[in-house]
C-alpha cells in the first residue's frame, strides 16, 4: 500500500514538473529508472532505454533554448500546453503500478494531466504578464525559473515523492486561486468600463 502511495505521489510530482517543462521530467524519470531508483509500470520500459533518454536529452536542450527566443516563447506556450498534459499523463502512468488499470489511468489523466495542464496554463499566463509589463525583457527570467523549477521538482519527486506531491497540490491551488482572482478583477473592470 505504501509503495502504491509513493508511486502515485511520484507521478503527481513529475506531472507538476511537466507543467514547467515538458521534457525535463521525462529525461530525469528515464535516467532514474535506468539507474534503478524508479520502477516503471509495465509497458513503459521504453522510457529508460538509451534511445529514449537521448531523445529526451536533445528535446530538453531544444525546449530550454527555444524559450529564450523572445517571440518564440509565447508561441511555444500555446503549442506546449497540450503536450504538457500528455507528458503529465505519461509520467504518471509510467510511475503508477500494481493497481487496477482503470484506477491507474484515471489517476494519470485526472491527477497527472490535470496537474501538468493547470501549472502550464498558470506559467503561460505569467509569461504573458511578463511580456505585457516588460515588453518581453523579463521573459528570460521566467524561462530560467521554469526549467530550474522543473528540474528541482523532478529530482524532489524521485527523492521525496510525498513532499513533491504536496508541493504540486499547493502550486495547483495557488494557480487556481490566482486565476479566479484575475477573472473576477477582469469582470469588475469590464463592468466599470460598461457603466462609465
Q: Strand share of the residues?
A: under 5%
Order of helices and strands: HHHHHHH
What does the overall shape look like?
globular
Summarize the amount of helix as a percent range: over 70%
**Count of domain modules:** 1
Biggest sheet character: none
* Gyration radius from CA atoms, angstroms: 18 Å
Count all strands and give the number.
0
Distance between the first and last residues' Cα: 60 Å
Structural class: mainly alpha
Residue-averaged pLDDT: 89
Task: List the uncertain runs.
Answer: none
SS element count, helices: 7
Question: How would you describe what is shown here?
Answer:
By secondary structure, this protein is mainly alpha-helical. The protein has one domain (2-195). It contains 7 helices and no strands. It has helices at residues 2-20, 23-34, 50-66, 70-95, 101-134, 139-159, 161-195. Helix 1 runs antiparallel to helix 2, helix 1 packs antiparallel against helix 4 and helix 6 packs antiparallel against helix 7 (161-195). The relative contact order is 0.18. The mean pLDDT is 89.
Write the layout of secondary structure elements.
Layout: H1 2-20, H2 23-34, H3 50-66, H4 70-95, H5 101-134, H6 139-159, H7 161-195
Helix pairs in contact: 1-2, 1-4, 1-5, 1-6, 1-7, 2-3, 2-6, 4-5, 5-6, 5-7, 6-7
Amino acid at each position: 500500500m505504501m509503495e502504491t502511495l509513493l508511486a502515485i505521489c511520484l507521478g503527481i510530482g513529475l506531472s507538476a514538473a511537466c507543467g514547467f517543462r515538458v521534457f525535463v521530467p521525462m529525461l530525469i524519470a528515464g535516467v532514474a529508472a535506468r539507474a534503478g531508483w524508479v520502477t516503471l509500470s509495465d509497458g513503459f520500459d521504453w522510457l529508460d532505454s538509451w534511445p529514449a533518454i537521448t531523445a529526451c536529452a536533445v528535446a530538453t536542450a531544444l525546449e530550454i533554448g527555444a524559450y529564450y527566443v523572445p517571440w518564440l516563447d509565447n508561441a511555444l506556450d500555446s503549442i506546449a500546453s497540450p503536450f504538457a498534459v500528455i507528458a503529465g499523463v505519461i509520467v504518471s502512468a509510467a510511475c503508477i503500478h500494481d493497481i487496477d488499470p482503470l484506477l491507474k489511468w484515471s489517476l494519470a489523466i485526472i491527477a497527472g494531466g490535470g496537474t501538468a495542464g493547470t501549472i502550464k496554463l498558470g506559467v503561460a499566463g505569467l509569461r504573458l504578464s511578463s511580456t505585457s509589463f516588460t515588453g518581453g525583457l523579463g521573459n528570460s527570467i521566467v524561462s530560467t525559473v521554469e526549467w530550474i523549477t522543473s528540474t528541482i521538482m523532478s529530482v524532489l519527486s524521485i527523492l521525496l515523492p510525498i513532499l513533491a506531491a504536496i508541493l504540486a497540490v499547493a502550486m495547483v491551488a495557488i494557480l487556481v486561486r490566482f486565476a479566479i482572482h484575475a477573472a473576477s478583477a477582469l469582470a469588475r473592470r469590464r463592468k466599470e468600463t460598461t457603466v462609465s
